[in-house]
## 1
Amino acid sequence: MSIPILFFSYFALASIVLSLIVVTRKNYIHAVLWTLLLFIHISGIYLFLNAEFFAMIQMIVYAGAILVMLIFVIMLLNVRHEDHLSDLSSLSIPKVFFVFCVFGILALALQASYLNTIGKFSIDVVNTFSDAKLLGQVFYSEANLPLIIMGVVLFVPMIAAIVLAGKRSDE
Amino acid sequence: MILNIIILIIEVAVVLGVLLLHVAYAVYFERKILGHIQARLGPTEVGPLGLFQPFADLVKLFFKEDNIPFGADKFLFTAAPVIVVTCVMTSFSVLPFAAGWVLANINVGLLFILAMSSLGVYGIIIAGWSSNSKYAFLGALRSSAQIISYEIPMGIALLAVLIMTGSLNLSDIVYAQDKLPWGMFIFPQIIGFFVFLVCALAETNRTPFDLPEAETELVAGYLTEYSGFRWGLFFLAEYSAMYVMSSMLTICFLGGWTLPPFLTNLLPILNLVPGIIWFLLKVYAIMFFYIWVRGTVPRYRFDQLLKIGWKLLLPLSLTNLFIIMIIKKVFMP
């Protein structure tokens, strides 16, 4: 086995194992820290695609910003242990149904994807241009409408947060 | 293959060794300057002019009692200082100290430094949470809020540098500055330089932004329960982070290891001086500024700190970005 395959199998296996560890922790803070490790491994997988920019954005946005927010919420709510919900007996039928639905959608999405075909952005293309440049080209030419819609979608919670904060200070 | 790996390991060891020596003397440097600001002499006893003081401190730290508080999360308590030190030390692998003197010349060096500084926050949060102490916990919450809010203006200030260069590679940023007649990015973007300078103070928890460890309110903040060598690791991380931030300022705004072309045209003999000397001179000028600020400026209140971050530095950095966009579009097509 060559070294890249060895490294890739480590990152892939570790991601699976780490995500299992995350969902089985009882202490919320520990779960978040395992998630941090998981995110670092995922950015390692991006590096195998020569997508350094994505790897760094994964670290800055997900590991550096979103997860810190999560830790803040957990610390401010001051929940330390998950005492209920820990055994299988509390599983209700709607929950199980929901889980199966999510897995069904995932399976459908996987079926629709084309395996073993090389798309427009192969590793060679990414090597000649940088992935940051390609990302910019795709974002602002082919995918500019989804980009604008995403902006609007992200703008709505911001308004909601400002309205909620304004209400609190009136009282 | 194996030879390459051995060479790389030796390079890493040399860089870390030199760095640790610099960090040890940064402490001496700081104590001496603070002493003279306050009309004292600073350390004088150990060795000539007190030059061996850092080593005496190191030996003292090694032999202190290593105390883990009752009720602490033992694993996380011991892991926290290691996380902080690792994140700071890894940043040095992408910094170019002179032409070609860089351990890893990666294309996303700028983002790598930002990513590492945002991962360093975890060490501080974990340190505060796992100590099982209210002072440490409050200090950690303050520190992470501060670092996250000052990272935004800092990132936007760096974005302006990125627009001028068109590359995320730190060596390319220095070469782009060398092409300008005045040889530095500080001139079109003096506002960006100011924003980065203030954010660098806040990111490294230095006075006047050292609220996480404000003695009068929080004992020692997230460091309260740490003693001996674990405390030493935090201390090491703080001073190394000062070097990272000073190096970033030097590379992104002051032209790195190069001199302005008009100076070298005037005095061609300056070309003979190795680039690392100019780099170190610029870094130490900023380090002196850091210490000077510590000696003169009082600490802000926490609400003032957040106000400065969100209401002053963020609009300033956006203004800088706007000005640079116009300059780039109009004068440098």
## 2
Amino acid sequence: MLTDRQPRSFLDPQSLARLAGVPLVARTPMVGGVSGRHASPHRGSSIEFAEYRKYVPGDDLRRLDWRAFGRSDRYYVKEYEADTNLRLCLVVDTSGSMGYGSAGTTKLDVARRIAGSLGYLAAQQGDAVGISCVADGIVQSLPPRRSPAHLRLVFDVLEAARPDGGTRLPEVLHEFAETIRQRALVVIVSDFFMPPPELESAFNHLRFRRHDVATFHLLDPQEVGFQFQRPTRFLDLEGNASIFADPIDIADRYHRAVESYLAELRRIVLASGIDHHRVLTTDDVEQALARFLVGRASGQGARR
Amino acid sequence: MTFLQPWVLVALPLVSLPLIIHLINQRRFQTVHWGAMMFLLSARALSRGYSRLRHWLIMLMRMLAVAAVILAVGRPLSRGWLALAAGGRPDTAIVILDRSPSMQARDRDAADTKLDTGRRQLAEAVATLGAAHTIVVTDPARPPLELDDPRAIADLPSAGPSAAPADIPRLLQAAYEHIRASAAGASEVWICSDQRANDWAVEAGGWSSLREAFAALPQPVRFQLLAFPQPAAGNLAVRVTATRLERRTADRELLLSIVVSRESAEQSAAEPVTVPVTIELGGATSTVELVVTGREAVLANHAISLGAEAEPQGHGRVSIPADTNAADNEFYFVFAEPAPRRTLVVADDEGVAKGLELVAGIPPEKSAVATVDRVPVAAVATAAWEEAALVLWQAPLPEGDDAKVVEAFVNRGGQVVFFPPADPDGHEFAGCRWTEWITHPEPLAPETWRTDEDLLANTRAGAALPVGELVVTRSCGLAGEIVPLASLTGGGPLMGRVPTQQGGIFFCATTPAPRDSSLASEGIVLYSLVQRAIDRGLESLSPARQLDAGAAAVAALGGTGRDAGAGWTRIAGSTAAPVDASGTQPAVYAREGRLVAVNRPAAEDQARSLPADRIDGLFQGLMFSRQDGRAGGADSLVQEIWRAFLIAMVLALIGEGLLCMPGRQRTRAAPDASPFGAAA
């Protein structure tokens, strides 16, 4: 089905082949335009029985359950679950801080691999894929579409993404919550270097709009461990600010700040019901994606 | 604190090395493009108090470690009482020891006396300092002694206890002479003393010249005083104040006057103490109990029967039980039948001569025999000087051979009272001369006179002589150095004394003649002074003499050195005393039927210590410091304390290491990165 013949640096065919065995499913019912692999809130023509309903004039007589009529002398219509496709909205943070990578691989590189792989897997199972690159605002955006040609455009956007500018992710997420018309799987790939209360508001907004929200929290090991030895001048990747600090002097307080931030973020994602995954730039992306997919597959069938 | 190698202290600026390294390290920073600025900003906003404190503490510990190493290499000395800057090793260390009896005191719970403690501490201190030359000055009459090993101070026989007062000014003078003569380099003078006023002789007047002499020395001289000013607790002293041999019917009887005194005034308010006083006399021992209630207890004229066949002279010893000062627990006494009270009167005025003969010829006691010889001026040289106790001289001052005879008489211990001649001729004797007669239009009365000592002193009962009732119509002027004993209204001298080693020379500015004064008609004053002068003169004639230990006793016994005491045999006293210590140890000496008892001076029994500021004033302008010691104290005055600095360095490094250890927070944030995602 994949029609993109151009090799992409952020896609590993072997890894994708291994991941293709696990379907990408939504944790909540999706409202799609065509039949697909995902649960729908509406009744449909799948083989999975849903419920009996009293016959009303106008119903198709072919769906009348004659056995039930024989037992109860009443007319019942037998209804089945509907399967539909989903709309995968990839939100990739391309702010300046995503350009940091102490081990040679930047957070944006990892974000490309995650977003690209998920986009490919979704397109493989007939879902619509869209992408938005976010920094100070929406840098680049493609709406979700099912066509393979559209996936190529998505890859082009990913390839062209460059880390630059500040971060206004919460505002953009609020905007998405209002503008994505139907239920969608919103996957956010970012380092989330922003105040957690702002994120909490945005996540709740998305959840309120019945979107299935998944987040990949990208961090560099140095950003967590802060293992510097010499006095260092830190230049902000998202602005012109600089801070001079002796790591020996400040490390303990830095660690306290990181720990406090992570604890707060954990509280928020648990409260908001977000599918949250933290990934270090040194981690194996395939394993992180497999963990993501398997975790979702185990919850398949949930309908609301 | 001083240092044996003070030049090492030049390296002290290296203390700032950790600071410099820190500053250099600060300049060697790296630049990193950083995304997680929010955490850095949060970290800076968090409390920096402890972190900053720890930072500075680490720096301080490093600097302390460096400083401790430098100070330890400088070989620091612990000299608690030397609040002076680093002085280094002195070239000459001079030790001056106060060996007076009061330095034999010790604490109740200590075995060492003040002198022993001082000697030991000074020996250790001088040995530690490592001075090139060590000099010990113990006696102004002996040359300073140089020691090869400073530790010998503690065992030096000549630095042992003495019954004589110390005379610190003369000891310092000897030290000064040595420094000047030996052209020594930087010198330290260590004085060990208990600050007794009689030892320091602050009234003597020689201190200012001594200060100036030391200040004028080209080499630096530093003075250190190891003081033991505390009085000996509960110390009692015994003393025989008078002995008199009397014949009662067939027996001879010895009358002893004994005083037991407490050392300090503070003890006077203490509980009464019963003291058994042991009297040893001619091999027999008797004990008398005295109850000391106040400052002192007096046993006056305690009669001891000697028997009919007893010798007309003898010696003995009184003692009290051991207390905190062993040096004042015994007293030697000698006694003999008193010599005849012989007086020579040399007068050119018949009226005056008769009056003087009258007052000299009446003995104060019925049993005594008084004789007066009138000697013409021309026959002075042939008079019986060797038997006379007093000469009353109302004639032109002696000159030529006459002067020599009188001087010899005075040096023997005789007393002379000069009255002005009718016609003063300007001759000088003993540095004094008569000037001219002054007739006072209004008769004058004596305005002031010395009531504490000498011929016009108050009586033993404390009553003053009626000197103020005298009337002086004519007086003769006096020129020369004289110590005034009485002055007339308006400041003119009435009576004075010329300072002498032995004997006494007195000048009275008027005569007993009725035209000159009322000395004869108000005869009490004249009689008292004449009889007192006779008593003084008799002391040199008596075959039994009591002498205060010191220079006078040494001179009376024949000088110092190996031949000291030549002819004199020590018949009682400590056999442990050095051979050449005659006159400085309590003992009884005999020679050709004469007896001499040497004891500590009376001033040693009185704890009159000089206050510290008075001592400081004596060394004003000189480098001086002091420390109070304690008898039996085991502490060293000076010791090397580099080990303490090495320990301080180790402690500083341990402290620095503990402060540099990573805190718990530093190991907490990093590991929980990946498990969280899986859990969520």
